[in-house]
């Protein structure tokens, strides 16, 4: 990690080459600075996320992708100090008075390793709703069917909803975790390397699922897989050393990047 002085002395190279005013913005970050203790882990990442698109966050290990992603739904609370504004539908959610549970309901997260609870598939999907006092069986049944269908795993699990989610394959478990995130009807889905523990077939299925989901959700995904970012996302942000370096339509980032460092990274020549 860089210290504050080193980061502040670096030239600003951030390239932002599409016109966000023409688009509908679901989330936006402004003047973010994220500290672990006294160490500055992220700055210069004023980004806008367009509704119903997929944005890939790419960059070398330790460049701050997860730090940035986890701040978007306040998952860094208690771990890091996040300064600056995180706007969700125009409201700065990075304020103490904001209900963090509501933030996480609207901005859901799926983690790198599938993390189903040691409960049935049915109870995994309905967990948050049941905790909120929703016990009407018809409602819960409907949510289970709808979200498992959205997550493209319904056909595989519909006859075993009472089986433990721990008995599922990695790919199935990850899609059940997506259904669990969708059950509370979020707007935004944050995914932190959701395919890194999956085989190529499950990865392909997950990508197909995300392509479908973007019709209804705004999706931001951290990935180390360049091919995945190139095939799946509409926009790509390249991070390095705690800064957003280049942000553009994915096609441009991968075919005509404006910054040499981005070019080196996407073409696999990054030192
Ligand atoms: N909980 C933490 N406490 C202290 N430092 C942290 C913590 N989490 C991350 N960091 C540091 O912040 C910097 C950015 O880490 P981060 O995990 O966000 O990078 P990343 O780009 O997501 O990396 P990777 O691709 O390896 O997951 C790194 O220097 C890391 O060591």
Topology:
Elements: H1 4-9, E1 15-16, E2 25-36, E3 39-42, E4 48-50, E5 54-58, H2 65-72, E6 81-88, E7 91-92, H3 100-106, E8 107-110, H4 121-131, H5 137-150, H6 154-157, H7 170-182, E9 188-192, H8 200-213, E10 218-222, H9 226-232, E11 235-240, E12 243-249, H10 250-255, H11 260-266
Parallel strand pairs: 1-12, 5-10, 5-11, 8-9, 9-10
Antiparallel strand pairs: 2-3, 2-4, 2-6, 6-7, 11-12
Helix pairs in contact: 4-5, 4-7, 5-7, 7-8
GO cellular component, one term: membrane
GO molecular function, one term: ATP binding
Pfam family, one: ABC_tran
Would you kindly provide a written description of the structure presented here, covering whatever features stand out?
The protein is α/β, with parallel strands linked by helices and 271 residues long. It has one domain: Rossmann fold (3-Layer(aba) Sandwich). Helices cover 36% and strands 23% of the residues. The chain has 11 helices and 12 strands. The strands form 2 sheets. The chain has a 7-stranded mixed beta sheet with strand order 1-12-11-5-10-9-8, sandwiched between helices. Helix 4 crosses helix 5 and helix 7 packs parallel to helix 8. The chain is globular and about 55 Å long. The two termini are 17 Å apart. 42% of the residues are buried. The protein binds adenosine-5'-triphosphate (ATP). The site of adenosine-5'-triphosphate has 12 residues, from helix 2. Keywords: ATP-binding, Cell membrane, Membrane, Nucleotide-binding, Phosphate transport, Translocase, Transport.
CATH superfamily membership: P-loop containing nucleotide triphosphate hydrolases
Strand order of the largest sheet: 1-12-11-5-10-9-8
Quaternary status: single chain
Q: What would you report as the Rg, rounded to the nearest angstrom? A: 19 Å
CATH class division: Alpha Beta
Estimate percent helicity: 25-40%
Overall mean pLDDT = 90
Q: Which small molecules are bound?
A: adenosine-5'-triphosphate
**Broad shape:** globular
Percentage of β-strand residues: 15-25%
Q: What's the order of the H and E elements? A: HEEEEEHEEHEHHHHEHEHEEHH
How many helices? 11
Largest sheet: 7 strands, mixed
Q: What's the N-to-C terminus distance?
A: 17 Å
The total number of structural domains is 1
State the total count of DSSP E strands. 12
């Amino acid at each position: 990690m860089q210290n504050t002085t080193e980061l502040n002395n670096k030239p600003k190279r951030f390239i932002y080459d599409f016109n966000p005013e023409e688009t509908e913005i679901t989330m936006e970050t402004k003047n973010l600075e994220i500290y672990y203790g006294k160490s500055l882990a992220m700055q210069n990442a004023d980004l806008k996320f367009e509704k119903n698109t997929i944005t890939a966050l790419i960059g070398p290990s330790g460049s701050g992708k997860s730090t940035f992603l986890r701040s978007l739904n306040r998952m860094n609370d208690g771990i890091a100090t996040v300064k600056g504004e995180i706007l969700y539908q125009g409201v700065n959610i990075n304020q103490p008075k904001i209900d963090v549970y509501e933030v996480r309901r609207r901005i859901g997260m799926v983690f790198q390793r599938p993390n189903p609870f040691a409960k049935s598939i049915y109870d995994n999907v309905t967990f948050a709703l049941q905790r909120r006092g929703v016990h009407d069986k018809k409602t819960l049944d409907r949510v289970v069917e709808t979200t498992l269908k959205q997550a493209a795993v319904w056909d595989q699990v519909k006859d075993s909803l009472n089986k433990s989610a721990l008995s599922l394959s990695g790919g199935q478990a990850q899609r059940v975790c997506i259904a669990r995130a969708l059950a509370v009807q979020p707007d935004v889905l944050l995914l932190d390397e959701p395919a890194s523990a999956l085989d190529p077939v499950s990865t392909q299925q997950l990508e197909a699922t995300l392509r479908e989901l973007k019709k209804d959700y705004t999706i931001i995904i951290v990935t180390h897989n360049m091919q995945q970012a190139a095939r799946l996302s509409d926009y790509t942000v390249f991070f390095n050393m705690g800064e957003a370096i280049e942000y553009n339509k994915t096609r441009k980032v991968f075919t005509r990047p404006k910054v040499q460092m981005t070019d080196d990274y996407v073409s696999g020549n990054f030192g």
